[in-house]
Specification:
The protein is an all-alpha fold. It has one domain: Up-down Bundle (Ferritin). The protein is about 75% helix and about 0% strand. α1 crosses α4, α2 packs antiparallel against α5 and α5 packs antiparallel against α6. The termini are far apart.
Amino acid sequence: MTAISSWLWVVLQLIVITNAHGEIFENNFEKESLSALHETIKSEVDNANLAMSKSQNQSLITFARKIIDDYSSIDGQSPYWQFKNNPPNQQISIAHSLAASGHEQGLMLSKLQGSDFDKAYIQNELEHHILMSGMLEVSMMPNIKSQNIKNYSLNCLLLFKKNLETIRASLVDAQNNQIAPINNVTRKLYAPPPRAND
């Protein structure tokens, strides 16, 4: 399964379950959403740590370090930690699917070296950020009732979109799919993370 089809399957699964289970799913939806966000953020950090250890490209290393800082920080603010020991009891868990998909992508990346790794990592980041932004906007946020969790989800969405724009503008050369020079990356990376009330 390719990266794009793997992530897309998870997003479609969330949409189907949300629509099919109605009231049964509603009670656990916010927990499930937070668990899913936690797992996808964990995958982001794991893959960025892999990039830090495998890549020789300074642009990509700078980006990976920023990903680690951004997502470690926002995960630490998550309401997820309030119910970590009391997880949602869904028979089909989107969080588990995201964890499995993230593990699959990490395993694929770990087998690559040099420019092959760099290109695959950036492609995975591009696809992941597009799909997670869509999942938050289409499936998660419209169904979240708690204002606190909605605000947190909005902060996650803004961060995904911010980093997606960095990937598009700074790391991917649309003409030849090469990693862009470091100077194009560093000037875009160090703005403070967006907040829901900005």
